[in-house]
Structures are given as structure tokens and as C-alpha cells.
# Entry
Amino acid sequence: MARVGTRIAAGVRNGLLRPGPDPTYADGDDSTWMGVDWPAMTRRVTVGEHEITVLDTGGDDERPVLVLLHGLSGRWQNWLLTIPAFMGSHRCIAPDLPGFGASSLAPEGVSIRGYARVVDELCHSLGVRRAGVVGNSMGGFVGAELALSSPTRVDRLVLVSAAGLSIEYVRREPLLATARVLSVTGARSVGYSKRIITRQRLRRAALQMFVRYPERLSLPLSWELMQGSGKPGFVHALDALTSYSFRDRLREIEVPVLIVWGENDLLVPVGDAARFERLIGSNARRVIFEDTGHAPMIERPSRFNEVLDGFLRDASRPEDDVAGVHGGATQDARAAAG
# Structure
């Protein structure tokens, strides 16, 4: 336990030492998503007792399917800089998980297995047999569980700063008590989103655990991220995250797995990337984004989309020739030197 605390403390120190963003940080082009008719591709789908809001770029053609799963306090809009880059080549499906975004929270509450079951049933209802699954944070936890519980549904898996390992060692009751306070605070902050995002210090305070340089994000994107706060699923989902373990089963995942992590993640320590890789086995590969926090797809969209595209195209080393991205061996050497 002491070693876990030391690793987390070291990660926090590393995350808080900010040298300043390079010119490629937050290089997303808002025009790629602000001109898209998202309402035309968004619908409500009944899955069991859940009313799910899902973004579905559609198509009955032979294009491969990409399912994108957001994290805690997220919603499908967390993928606004990813979907436009792939919707021409893939059918992109991005749900609001139950209790988040515009999706209802079912009476039975939340569990990681339950979320995986909902995603599996959603794919079935949309006529999707197999898909590449990309999950950030809690969404990575859910995506990995989906690959375990419904292995024929997943043909490739991408874990982006995925939860599920170090969170096992967090003391549940103090965390949940804090979460209840944060849930109320988050709900109130949504009403003040415009004021928060237009003031750099407030924006940094609101988003600094999620992204490394909140002040560099555009105002429209910051506003979209703020809207995920204060949803009814927050405390339930955090409880689910801390009460379920699948580490002993990760070896059962047989599909290709790409593990993507921000080197300066404040929420899930970068060391978990190596642990996921080791526990899954030789079919997993990790890549680390330099000077990046918990949301590589938002902070480094050009890099993320290039690496993801390489992986989907079956590149064995998708990070090759992508600036600011390195493989796990480099990360291990840096850790040993430090």
C-alpha cells in the first residue's frame, strides 16, 4: 500500500510541474466538428430499462465500426475531435453511458459489468456484429470488460488512460463521501460554464485534473467538456469503479490491444499502462504521450488520431514517426533513470 501511495504522489508531482505547452498542444480544429450536423446523427435507443442517447454516424455499408466510450463525468462529446477524423472510413458509435450525458440512470444503478452489457446490447440493437472499441478512463474499464464478457463483439481494443487497476487500492468510503460533494458542486458549475471557461484561472481549476493545460483549450470545446459534470450517474459509477476488479482475467483478452496514456496523467497513474500491458500479454502494446494529461484524444488530437489510425490499419508500431509519442520501453528507461 505504501508503494502505491508513493507512486501516486510521484505522479501528482510530475503532473503539477508544468513547463508550458508546446505549439502542438490542443491542436484540434474546431471547424472539423462545429460544422457537423450532430443532431441528425443523434438518437434515443431503448436498451433494457435504459434510455440511451447515442451518436451514430450510420451506414449499412461494409465500413468497419468504431465504438467510443467516454469516462466518468463524460459524454459522447468527449470524442468531438476524434469522430470527424474517422467518420469517413468508419461507422462511429458513441453513446452516453447510463446516468451520464442525456442517458437515463436505470433503477438498478451502475456496475462495470452492467455498462459492458448495455454496450453489447446497444451494438446488437444497432446491427453491429463486431467493432473496434476505444474507451477513455472509465470507458476503458468498460471496454476491457466488454472484451472479456462478450469477446466476439470486440475485434480491437484501445485503452486510453483506462481505469480499473490502481483504483482498487483507493479507500472507498472517503472517496465516495468526497464524490457526493463534487457531484453537487459539478451540477452547480454547469450553470456557470460560460463564466468559468472565459476566465483562465477558473477554467484551469475546473479542468486541470482532466487535461494538462486547460487554458489552451478552445472556449467551445471547454464548454462541451463542462456539460458532463453533475450527472446522476457520477457517485454510482465511482462506487462501481472501486468495487470491481478484473486484473486476474485480463490475460483472457485475445484481440489486439493498444494502450494510450498521457505521461502526466493526474487521475490514473501512467504506471498503470505498463501494468495493463503486462497483465494482458503479448497482444497488448502501450504508447505514451509526452506532456499530456488524462485525455490524449482532446489534448493531442492530431497525435491521437494518427496513432489510432495506424493501429486500426494493423501497424505493429503505430507510434513510429509520430512526434511526442514513444513506446513503453522508452517510458521504462525514463522511469529507471528517474
About this structure: DSSP finds 14 helices and nine strands in the chain.
